[in-house]
Specification:
- The protein is mainly beta.
- It has helices spanning 3-12, 14-24, and strands at residues 38-40, 50-51, 67-69, 71-73, 100-105, 109-114, 119-123, 138-143, 150-155, 159-164, 169-173, 188-193, 200-205, 209-214, 219-223, 238-243, 250-255, 259-264, 269-273, 288-293, 300-305, 309-314, 319-323, 338-343, 350-355, 359-364, 369-373, 388-393, 402-405, 410-414, 420-424, 439-444.
- The longest helix is centred in the first third of the chain and has 11 residues, at 14-24.
- Strand 29 (402-405) and strand 30 form a beta hairpin.
- The chain has two helices and 32 strands.
């Protein structure tokens, strides 16, 4: 078993989640630092959020739509310590010859969609999630093989997917639960076509499952279904897409770690799947294999499903989150979980959101970024490793056009001109700066 899977086991075993959930709701004391995914862009109004929201023209789970495991759209536990100030910063790279138009940060890898429809990825490549035909990890971007005409990109935990012109979808990387959707459980180091998908408008890759928003407002999902995250009324894994039961009128989607959410035309949100920390927002902690409405949430315009929690950007430019809150990821000034939405403190003028593993980021109308939650590796970008239960500004960023919070405790931002900056955990090169050095403030991705 690889180190990364051992790490995942440590934070994702059902028993661990039960204890964690109890702590989040105050039932037992717990002091735990953990690890924490997606891209959100201001152009995503009803369309979505980071790791999942995508719009027809949107650039995948990252840019135009926004949200941590982000949403894709169609139209005070440990406090940490300040980090050292001696981090070397690579020289600023020149403007890229082919600029990025969308970004998606995942677990230990990150990806960018380039103008012209090609894609590049960097970081861990143990299962072929970089899509370059090999399994060699890299600390700087490499081209995904055979991709052109892509409109959207979404990086899952150990896999990656793109939405192509014409509404088809291709995926690559790990496939043990069928998350690539090609009818097999064979890992792929280069893109393969998802079976039976056409007319897709948006995609969102979760932990070990993937979903697509189709024309007509229906949603199909495939891959792991242990907790009902595919929404088909069962807990049976699927290697090809199945329809989410009873869902219509969807305009944005976001796949989280083990749950999925959809934004509907009437601006309400429905979620399904794992619910041990209240991440479905229906006021319970009952697992759901079909969609249920988020309690009391109206006028949502963007959604982002993270790890055990979910956030929504409202029409007024404010943000509400619900679910687990062990490290302050709900942003309400506490570490108390909530199975119904609570307001993020002190945020206004927000145009995009992205929920990661245990941290969340928001892009504001002026181009600044604020983040909150876990900060063990500097993923909040405020030049410290101090956990924050309310939003803090990312240092030295301005004019940002899209954000993506990774599930591997890092964050990336798309800047004007198509350059990309990332910060946080970097043990696998997921920041793309040519090193494996942790960064508590943004550094430039080489060549982007």
């Amino acid at each position: 078993m690889s180190d990364r899977l051992k790490w995942r086991e440590r934070v994702s075993l059902p028993l661990g989640r039960i204890v964690l959930a109890a702590a989040m709701f105050g039932a037992v004391p717990l002091s735990l630092t953990a690890c924490s995914n997606s891209t959100a862009s201001p152009t995503a109004s009803p369309t979505g959020t980071a790791a999942a929201t995508a719009s027809p023209a949107a650039s995948a789970s990252a840019t135009i739509t926004a949200s941590a495991s982000a949403s894709a759209s169609a139209g005070a536990s440990p406090t940490g310590t300040a980090s050292p100030t001696t981090q070397p910063t690579p020289a600023r790279s020149a403007r890229p010859a082919t600029p990025a138009i969308a970004i998606s940060a995942s677990d230990f890898h990150s990806c960018a969609l380039l103008s012209g429809g090609s894609a590049k990825c960097w970081g861990d490549n143990e299962y072929g999630q970089l899509g370059d035909g090999g399994t060699t990890s890299t600390t700087s971007p490499v081209s995904v093989s055979g991709i052109s005409g892509a409109l959207n990109i979404s990086a899952g935990d150990l896999h990656t997917c793109v939405l192509l012109h014409g509404g088809t979808v291709k995926c690559w990387g790990a496939n043990f639960a069928g998350q690539l959707g090609d009818g097999t459980t064979t890992n792929r180091t280069a893109p393969v076509l998802v079976s039976g998908i056409s007319g897709a408008l948006a995609i969102s890759a979760g932990y070990n499952h993937t979903c697509a928003l189709l024309s007509g407002g229906i949603v199909k999902c495939w891959g792991n279904n242990e907790y009902g995250e595919l929404g088909d009324g069962t807990t049976t894994n699927r290697t090809t897409p199945v329809s989410v039961s009873g869902l219509s009128g969807a305009i944005a989607i976001s796949a989280g770690s083990n749950h999925t959410c959809a934004l509907l035309r009437d601006w309400i949100v429905k979620c399904w799947g794992w619910n041990i920390t209240g991440e479905l927002g229906d006021g319970t902690t009952t697992e759901r294999t079909t969609p249920v409405a988020v309690s009391g949430l109206v006028n949502a315009r963007v959604i982002s499903a993270g790890n055990g929690y979910t956030c929504a950007l409202l029409v007024a430019g404010t943000v509400k989150c619900w679910g687990g809150n062990l490290l302050g990821e709900l942003g309400d000034g506490t570490t108390t979980g909530s199975p119904t939405p609570v307001a993020v403190s002190g945020l206004s003028g927000v145009v995009a959101i992205s929920a990661g593993y245990w941290h969340t980021c928001a892009l504001q109308s002026g181009g600044g970024v604020k983040c909150w939650g876990d900060n063990a590796y500097g993923e909040l970008g405020d030049h410290t490793t101090i956990q924050r239960t309310t939003p803090v500004s990312v240092s030295g960023l301005s004019g940002v056009v899209a954000i993506s919070s990774g599930t591997g405790e890092h964050t990336c931002a798309l800047l004007p001109g198509g350059s990309v900056k990332c910060w946080g955990f970097n043990a696998h090169g997921q920041l793309g700066d040519g090193t494996k050095t942790q960064r508590t403030t943004p550094v430039s991705v080489i060549g982007l």
